[in-house]
Structures are given as structure tokens and as C-alpha cells.
Amino acid sequence: MTAPLADAAEAVLAGNWTGESTVPSRHQYPHQWGWDAAYIAIGWSWIDAGRAAAEIESILRGQWPDGRVPHIVFHPGVPEGEYFPGPAFWAGGVDGVATSGLTQPPLHARAALEVSRRSDEGDAFLRRVFGRLVAQHDYLAGRRNAGGGGLAAIVHPWESGLDDSPAWDEPLAAVDLPAEGVAPYERRDRRHVAASERPSDAAYDRFVQLARVYRDGGYADDGQSAFLVEDPLFNAIWLWSTHALAEIAGLIGEDAGPYRDAAVRIHEALMTRLWDGERFLPRDLRTDRLIDRRTILSLGPLLDPQLPEEVAAALAAELESPHFRGPGGLGVASSDLLAPTFERRRYWRGPVWANLNWLLARGLRQHGLVREAADVEQTTLSLVEHAGIREYYDPVTGDGLGAEDFSWTAAAVIDILRA
Ligand code: 2M8
Predict the structure, then answer these.
(1) What share of the chain is helix, strand, coil (3-state, %, to 5)?
(2) Which of 171, 261, 348, 351 has the least C-beta neighbours within 10 A?
């Protein structure tokens, strides 16, 4: 692949670097985000290992005493009005670092391991972050085990990272809104991106209401959230990171046993709680039923190295099917191309995302599905080359959508080109 693409990707990361960490995009998301930081650190690791380590240590600076790694660490210099919901809304944080109170997919241990491979610091970086990563995993295993079966539950669609996925339509519809209506708020997300590419107002009302209720309850993980879901992608990422934690422990002379055991437990819970015999589905803990929607979330367990071969093969076949691969072969759609909920241009309701393609390619490769992995990577590179380093892409035309100069897309490109 071409040098100009690599140069453009590096320029995006450099342009989004703030001195301490990297924003997802300058205008749309002017703070540091939880799982973005992990992808971005892996991208930086090929160019500037110091910045890669700083990226991870910056997001971990926002970690709460209970271990949660927040989904946003706010930059103090950015005015409140630049992003909603900003620091004043969340009223959260630690040691002078303002943060949100939600979390996001825990990709950080995996990122830390990858960063350390290209760092001159030897094990020093891993030693600095190990305790915090363990605390993050303990938080998920302890405070988020709302279903009691050993998986981590998310309490808000924003925690999935796939905020507007059709998988969340049903559980969101069941969230009660106040009889007098949701207290007024001002969306800021459509100033730089077309409304047709962003979530609806109805979805936003529920996002804001859920976040307010969680905040007003002191961010207590008491199992009372009106939205309470076990998400296969979130849990698969947690599992992938748990394997990384075991590896990190081995590298720095800590006991890897507890993390190996935890990985076995999460794998078994994924199989017993979210596999329906045909596909992985999110479990709605409010109804204790699986949410029967085909979305890219279901493909996430490819990241589980212990997945039985026939299950990995079934996931790979689903990924290659017309539900996820359009006739033009443009990347993996975030949601079923053939379903009535499919929307080509709207956020997580259909578009192709480079970060997810990157994850899925890693999963496929882990199961020896090398041709399939290379195909996903190559189509991702072609999309980006054709349409620019955007937040997401139309799976039918390949048009670039959402924010421009997007960091995790740049990071995925860099890692695919270099790895
Ligand atoms: C999107 O989410 C934020 C809220 O967290 C938003 O729309 O304002 C999602 O794509 C999420 O996964 C991502 O981490 C974030 C920043 O890139 O943007």
C-alpha cells in the first residue's frame, strides 16, 4: 500500500495530538475518549513509543478509586460548550481530572502489551500501568457482574462504543422517560456532522436521561439501571485484554495465574450466556432474553482465542455473508445490510468502521483465518485511500462519513501497514 496513505495517517495522529494525549477528531470530539485511547496508542506505538505510552497513562489518570476507567477524560482548556455532555454534566472525576462516569470497552491492557513491544523503556512502562489495569478488570468483574454469570454488564449504550446500534433499540425503547419530558439540553454533535449521519433525537433523549439517572444515583452499580445489557463485543474485548494481562504479568514477574483463570471464566460465560447455537447475541438483563438483532457486535467473540473452531468458522462465514459484506466488498458493515433497521449513513446503524474491521481482522488471524483477515484489512485500506481518514464509511458507495481526520481510523491504517 502506498506511502501517501501512511503519511496521511501519521499526519492525522500528529494533528490530533494535544501534548498529553490525542483527540478522536479536533472539532467533533475535543477530549480524550476511553477506547479510542487504546487504538490510538497502538497507532502511535509504530511512530513514537513515548506518545503511545503517554496516551495510555493519560486515560488511566482519569481512573476512579473504584477502578473504572472513564469513557471521557476532559481537557481542562476546552470550553464546556464544545462538547455535550461536558464536564459540568458529569460532575465526575478524580484528583482534579474531570471525567465522565461511564466506561467503554476495556481494550487498554491489550494496547499496553502492544505498546510495550515497541518501547525502549523495557518493562518499566508495563510496571507503571499494571496495577491500574488490574483494578480496571477487577471493577468489571466485581461491580459490573449484574447478571451474576461472570460477564460485565453495560449500563448505557455509550459504554458499548456502538451507541446507536440497532441492537439497543429494544432495551432503549423500554427506558421510561419522565412524564413531564426530558429536561432540556442542547445537542452539539450536529454542528460539524450532518444530522442524517448522527443518532435521532429520540435516541438522544434516552441517552441523556439514562446518563442523568446514573449520575444522580452517584454512579452506583446497584443493578438498577433501566438499561442493563451483556454485550458480546464489550465482553470479548475484556477477554482479549485479560489474556494480555496474563502475558503482561508474566513479563514483569507477577503471577499470571489469576488472569489465566479469569480468561477461562469469561470464555465460559460468553459461551453459556450469549451463544444461542447460531450466533452470539447481547443479553438484556431487564428481560433476561437475548436481543435477536444481527449486528457486528455478534462477531466480536472472534477475539476469543479459545473459541471452538466450528464457532469461529460460523462467525467468519457470517462476516463474509451478504448481511455484512455489500456487493462491492466494502469492509464489514456495522449492522445487517439486509435488515429494515439498516441505514447506510447513520453512525452505528450500518456504516463501516475501521477500528472494528481492525479488531475483526485480528480475531480472524488469531483463528488461522489469514486470507479472510487480509481481505478485511485490504478493503479497509482501500476504503480509506478512496474516501479519506474519516470516522466511518457508507458500506454501499464507500463515501466517507462523520468526522474528518479521525484518529482511530489513522491508527488502524498505521497498524495494518506496519504490522
Ligand atoms: C462516539 O461516541 C460519543 C459518545 O461517547 C459521541 O457520539 O459523542 C462513539 O463512536 C464512541 O465509540 C467513540 O468512542 C466516540 C469518540 O470517537 O464517539
Answers:
(1) 50, 10, 45
(2) 261
Residue at 387: amino acid letter: A
Grid cell 456487493 is found at 327
Give me ligand 1 centre to Cα 161, in Å: 6
DSSP 281-299: --EETTTTEE----BGGGG
Residues 293-327: tens digit of each pLDDT: 999 999 999 999 999 999 999 999 999 999 999 87
pLDDT digits (tens, 9 = 90+) for 61-117: 999 999 999 999 999 999 999 999 999 999 988 999 999 999 999 999 999 999 999
pTM of this prediction exceeds 0.85 = yes
Distance separating alpha carbons of residues 110 and 286, to the nearest angstrom: 31
How many Cβ atoms sit within 10 Å of the Cβ of residue 278? 10
Q: Which residues are registered as beta bridge partners of 413?
A: none
Q: How far is the CA of 412 from the centre of ligand 1 (A)?
A: 16
Q: DSSP label at 168? A: G
Residue 114 makes CB contacts below 8 A (sequence gap 6+) with 41, 42, 45
| Annotated catalytic residue, options 82, 123, 163, 170 | 163
Q: Residue 146: exposed, middle, or buried by beta-carbon count in 10 A (0-12, 13-18, 19+)?
A: buried
Residues 273 and 406: their CA atoms lie apart, in Å, by: 35
Phi first, then psi, for residue 411 (nearest 5°) are -65, -40
Q: How far apart are CA 181 and CA 90, in angstroms?
A: 20
- The CA distance from 132 to 252, in Å, is 14
Max intra-chain CA distance, the chain: 58
Q: Which residues line ligand 1 (CB under 6 A)?
A: 24, 29, 33, 35-36, 71, 158, 161, 163, 189
